[in-house]
Write a structure and sequence with these properties.
Largest sheet: none
Mean pLDDT: 96
Helix content: 55-70%
Low-confidence stretches: none
Number of strands: 0
Length: 134
């Protein structure tokens, strides 16, 4: 099963969008799935308020897992993480029209831009492309 399939399987088993994306990369990043699941929980449903898409938040978590130096005394990887997120957000917006959950779901317009499953697939695809070179 590839990461997109895994992420969708997780989503269909009641993981939120952020949890689905972040947990699909746990084994690659050497992260504990239960801890990642807990950390990602409040980012679902657009941070509980239909703001930033949970799949985008999941991308941010994976970027941190992959690129952060974890140096608590003198972190040096913030700019690299921010640059990667800028790239990922630009490409996600190009595919989906927005990173705002309510806009993607068409809350005010009635026009759904993308399904949650589609956003999850796009997030995983972008992470594979930019972080893992797949």
């Amino acid at each position: 099963m590839d990461r997109k399939e895994l992420a969708l399987k997780l989503h269909h088993s009641k993981f939120n969008c952020c949890q689905s994306v972040a947990c699909a990369f746990c084994h690659v990043m050497g992260q504990d799935p239960e801890t990642t699941f807990k950390q990602a929980e409040a980012f679902g449903f657009g941070m509980g308020a239909m703001e930033t898409c949970g799949a985008v938040s999941g991308m941010a978590m994976v970027v941190g897992m992959k690129l952060s130096d974890g140096n608590l005394e003198d972190p040096k990887t913030k700019k690299e993480c921010y640059a990667m997120m800028k790239t990922l957000i630009e490409e996600f917006k190009a595919k989906n029209g927005s990173i705002n959950c309510a806009e993607i779901k068409g809350v005010e317009t009635g026009k759904v831009l993308r399904s949650c499953d589609g956003c999850i697939e796009d997030a995983v695809e972008l992470l594979d492309k930019h972080l893992l070179g797949l």
